[in-house]
Design goal:
Number of helices: 9
Structural class: alpha/beta
Mean pLDDT: 95
Shape: globular
Largest sheet: 5 strands, parallel
Bound molecules: cytidine-5'-monophosphate
Oligomer: single chain
Distance between the termini: 13 Å
Helix content: 40-55%
Strand content: 5-15%
Order of helices and strands: EHEHHHHEHEHHEH
Strand order of the largest sheet: 2-3-1-4-5
Length: 209
């Protein structure tokens, strides 16, 4: 069984995807990390994230980079969003994601284009959303816990800019698949969001029976 979980940054999709993977006993891939690694590698190479050739060269980042905590920062998220607009970068990361999705037994993947491009044949597609204010609030608390100094306004502004870039790009924009189940986590706690996700997966599975 393949479960696709898409949505914008800090919508709760990562937590939902991890929970679904544990619940159904499936492996999980956070595809945003791949784009974050490319963004970070461009910086390490002294390249320009806006330049397609520089971004493509960074796709051969070392595997160990994926485990580096530095990928979690807002700055690297911004670089990821810049490199992800290049079709050549998306193409370079496609096979790796599809190999993971189509492994025997299935998988859960979260990202922006799992249900639309990577695995349109997924058994269940979820699109997780929340208002910018709710997402900014969550990100603010996470960053405070990590000791990063930032204002709520700045986070909200960055999220809006990133949403705009992700949604308006030509290749694989952030849009729900036509048959995706939309889960709005704005006023849902972790448990309620997870319960809604399980319900959506079960409904999707029942619909394909
Ligand atoms: O999900 P996360 O915030 O880690 O993703 C970082 C950036 O990587 C996103 O803003 C998006 O531009 C890009 N991305 C993407 N396609 C994916 C996953 C992430 O374009 N499947």
């Amino acid at each position: 069984m393949i479960i696709a979980v898409d949505g914008p940054t800090a919508s709760g999709k990562g937590t939902i995807a991890k929970g679904l993977a544990a619940h159904f006993g499936l492996p999980h891939l956070d595809t945003g990390l791949l784009y974050r690694a490319v963004g970070k590698q461009v910086e390490l190479n002294g390249g320009d994230a806006e330049d397609q050739a520089d971004a493509l060269a960074a796709c051969s980042f070392p595997a160990a980079l994926l485990a580096d905590e530095c990928l979690r920062s807002e700055a690297v998220g911004g670089l990821a969003s810049r490199v992800s607009v290049h079709p050549a970068v998306r193409e370079a990361l496609l096979k790796r994601q599809q190999d993971f999705a189509f492994q025997t037994g299935g998988a859960v993947l979260d990202g922006r284009d799992i249900g639309t491009v990577i695995a349109p044949e997924a058994d269940a597609k979820l699109f997780v959303i929340a208002t910018v204010d709710a997402r900014a609030e969550r990100r603010f608390r996470e960053m405070q816990d990590r000791g990063e100094i930032v204002t709520l306004e700045k986070i909200a502004e960055d999220l809006r800019r990133r949403d705009e870039r992700d949604s308006s790009r030509q290749t694989a924009p952030l849009v729900p698949a036509p048959d995706a189940y939309i889960i709005d986590t704005t006023s849902l706690g972790r448990d309620a969001a997870f319960a809604a996700a399980i319900e959506a997966v079960e409904a999707a599975l029942a619909a394909t029976d």
